Predict the structure.
Amino acid sequence: MMAEAIEPISTSLAVGIAAAVTGFLARYPNVLYFFQECCRPEWISYNKTGAGLALGTKLYNYLVETCNEHWIGFNATGLEEDLQSKLFGQHVASRVLLKAVTGFMSSQEPKKPLVLSLHGWTGTGKNFVSQLIAKNIYQRGMTSSFVHLFTATAHFPHEAKLETYKMDKMHPGLIDSIKPYLDYYDQLDGVSYRKAIFIFLSNAGGENIVQVALDFWKAGKEREEIQLKDLETALSLSVFNNKNSGFWHTSLIDKNLVDFFVPFLPLEYKHVVQCGRAEMISKGLEFNEEAVVQMARDMNYFPRNERIFAMQGCKVIPSRLDFYI
Ligand SMILES: Nc1ncnc2c1ncn2[C@@H]1O[C@H](COP(=O)(O)OP(=O)(O)OP(=O)(O)O)[C@@H](O)[C@H]1O
Ligand SMILES: *[C@@H]1O[C@H](CO)[C@@H](O)[C@H](O)[C@H]1NC(C)=O
């Protein structure tokens, strides 16, 4: 559980969730992003502390993150551009997420929070895309005090447990315990959660998604021809049938509380190259295509014979690249 440094406003929701999940997070790797609502009238009126204090308040609002348009405001164009130019090889996820988030954010009175469940192979951009969404809602992006990250991956003890780690990061009990928060509650602890966004990240269904991508490849079809409907069956079957899945034994799906299941495709050699280039730019390094290509070639690809998909996706690139420059 991350410590929340700046808490300008009551965050009883965060506290509630924290209490519910802390026990699980201590033992299981899970990732859950929670983007807190920031549209309650009393939160906004917090800024209006009287005419005499106007100047001081104004300054305060620029220095300390508060519920105003300087700090918070959804940028649909920004998200669209980021998804297009920064997220590689995820045309299906891109489309679904843009539609889901834009639709939700432009709704004045959503009846429930937006709940997204991102599924796919490791290192394919699930955390990354969550950061892009945060960046286009909050001025401070992931460092916003309205963004909450619940994770235990950082404390995951041994490389040897990587197999378990790959199966699914969400413990079955976890989702049950936070279910009330995802439910159609208008008020819980006197706080409205309706404009909140929950993003679950999971590797469940990843193998089935890989199979669909592999079938397309074997049939000589373009990756970009893969549509959401081609993946939906694979995804729902795996999520329902996998006993290790967090969705097992929960009524979350029955009650349609998860709004969108978003599939992430396994990344190919060309995407690894793209990630390598992007990494160079973000590190401010001198451009070196040869190094990027060499690094991409040295990565592990699967299935063993076809060698199409990057075993670790783009995940290890930041550290790997250093060895090639
Ligand atoms: N599709 C992608 N496009 C661009 N960059 C990517 C993509 N996938 C991964 N990356 C890069 O690799 C890093 C690690 O990926 P990320 O943590 O998002 O993977 P993940 O799918 O969440 O993996 P895991 O399931 O193991 O948590 C990202 O920070 C980003 O720099
Ligand atoms: C929204 O994002 C676009 C593209 O990144 C940027 O040019 C624009 O300035 C942003 N708008 C606001 C209001 O931040």
In short: The first strand starts at residue 31 and ends at 35. The pocket of 2-acetamido-2-deoxy-beta-D-glucopyranose (ligand 2) is lined by residues 75, 77-78, 81 (CB under 6 Å). Residues 12-264 form one domain. Strands lie at 31-35, 114-120, 147-151, 197-202, 260-264, 301-302, 309-310.
